[in-house]
Amino acid sequence: MALTNFVPQVWSAALQATLKKALVARAVATTRWQGEIAGQGSVVKIQKPAQLTAGAYSGTVTYATPTSTTLDLAINQSNYVAFKVGDVVAAQANVDLVSEYTREAAYAVAKLADTYVMGLAADSGLNAREVAVDLAGARSGWDSMYEKVVDAAEILDGSDAPREGRFIVASPRMMAALVSDDTFVAATQLGDAVRVNGSVGRIAGFDVVASNNVLKEAIAGTTPGSKDVTFFGVVGAIAYADQLMSMEAQRLEASFDDGVRGLHLFGAKIIEPSALGRFSVTTLDAIA
């Protein structure tokens, strides 16, 4: 900012907060391997024990030799953010702009990771574990979300997935349909603990979290036409780990600016497909 840009105006010491999308990846994925990636390479080896079976006792005992399956959680995604703040701008602002923008930067990299995790819903292995929902057109023609959630529960029950920790990630159109259902219990009725955990409500045994970062897919052969593809399942079916390699400030050469840059490494993987499924939600009227 040149000196000629100084104007007799008051710069407020209070910043207007920017509007942000809710981030839900950490609410539905397990981060139990988070601490194992710091400075230790780009792949986390996850050991999955085999299931044991019980047998009828007839006087002798036979010992099984269980084997474990190794799953690789690759920390193979990266993004960065970098910005600079000039001395003159900082002097006029009367606020710690570097700190404020650093918080904005942290959200920016987290949003990309959140979108990546939601994109795992495209996994072809979930094709047989999909519940189609039609929410196109007028509300009077929308599918019953309660019935669709019951269909999702049946899929999980058929795989012996735990009933505890079940979740739904709802897109905006899904949320509109859910809250219109008489069986939906809003988080305000469930207490502070639910709101802190990120749930916006509960239906048919599922905690509901809302996200604007769900996967969008085009409907083949239609113009326009789109659908939201989003998860239902049990918390822990997806593994997520990340590492903020650096968020460093430096004095930039050839200018009177402070620069801040950060590098974020992360990885996510579906590790329990039997405890996961997806909704395919038509959101726009299709025109042939």
What's the gist of this structure?
The protein is an alpha+beta fold and 288 residues long. The chain is built from six helices and 13 strands.
Keywords:
single chain; 288 residues; alpha+beta; phage-related protein like fold; eight-stranded mixed beta sheet; three-stranded antiparallel beta sheet; flat; disordered N terminus
CATH class group = Alpha Beta
Q: What does the radius of gyration come to?
A: 24 Å
What is the second-level CATH architecture? Alpha-Beta Complex
Name the helix and strand elements from N-terminus to C-terminus, one letter apiece: HEEEHHEHEHEHEEEEEEE
Domains counted in the coordinates: how many? Answer: 1
The count of β-strands is: 13
Main sheet: strands, sense, barrel: 8 strands, mixed
Mean pLDDT, to the nearest integer, reads 79
Q: Structural class given helices, strands, pairing? A: alpha+beta
Fraction of residues in H or I helices? 10-25%
Query: How much beta, percentage-wise?
Result: 25-35%
C-alpha geometry? flat
CATH topology: phage-related protein like fold
Low-confidence stretches: 1-7, 192-197
Q: Specify the number of helices.
A: 6
Q: State the end-to-end CA separation.
A: 54 Å
3D structure, described in words:
By secondary structure, this protein is α+β, with helices and mostly antiparallel strands. Strands 4, 5, 6, 7, 8, 9, 10 and 13 form an eight-stranded mixed sheet that branches. A three-stranded antiparallel sheet has the order 3-12-11. It has helices spanning 25-28, 87-93, 97-119, 145-158, 172-179, 192-196; strands at residues 43-49, 68-74, 77-86, 130-134, 166-170, 185-186, 201-203, 206-210, 215-218, 226-234, 238-251, 257-270, 276-282. The radius of gyration is 24 Å and the shape is flat. The chain has six helices and 13 strands. A hairpin with a 2-residue loop joins strand 7 (201-203) and strand 8. The chain has a single domain, classed as phage-related protein like fold, CATH 3.90.1690. 25% of the residues are buried.
